[in-house]
Amino acid sequence: QVQLVESGGGLVQSGASLRLSCAASGRTFSIYTVGWFRQTPGREREFVAAISWNGGRTAYEDSVKGRCTISRDNSKNTVYLQMNSLKPEDTAVYFCATPRTTGWAVTSHDYYYWGQGTQVTVSS
To answer: What is the pLDDT of residues 9-28, one digit of tens each?
Structure first.
């Protein structure tokens, strides 16, 4: 059973930084793409960023480009999302996820295993 556990969320002021972590267990983590998504009440889950199995390919949602960096440490089975210059509109529950199969993925329907999420709240 694959388990993903997010951490690092919190309440911060506008302009601050946070680093989210996604710790994985249950299968060979290092061969799978990992993505970060976010969701606010009443809205669909939104893609934020993704990273390929070896970190050689990344993708970002337009509103976070230049402010967020996704990275991974396969020796620790962990993926990170560094978020800088946070804005109130970044407020959401952030989820990490990984597909059932290997390969690149940037849409939520391509992902199968999901964590429970970590709340990020940015005050103005």
So the answer is: 999 999 999 999 999 998 88
CA–CA distances in Å: residue 69 to residues 26, 57, 115: 25, 12, 19
Are 124 and 98 spatial neighbours (Cβ–Cβ below 8 Å)? no
SS (H, E, C) the chain: CCEEEEECCEEEECCCCEEEEEEEECCCHHHCCEEEEEECCCCCCEEEEEECCCCCCEEECHHHCCCEEEEEECCCCEEEEEECCCCHHHCEEEEEEECCCCCCCCCHHHCCEECCCEEEEEEC
Q: Mean pLDDT across the chain, nearest whole number?
A: 96
| Separation CA 37–CA 98 (nearest Å) | 11
By the 8 A CB rule, do 32 and 26 touch? no
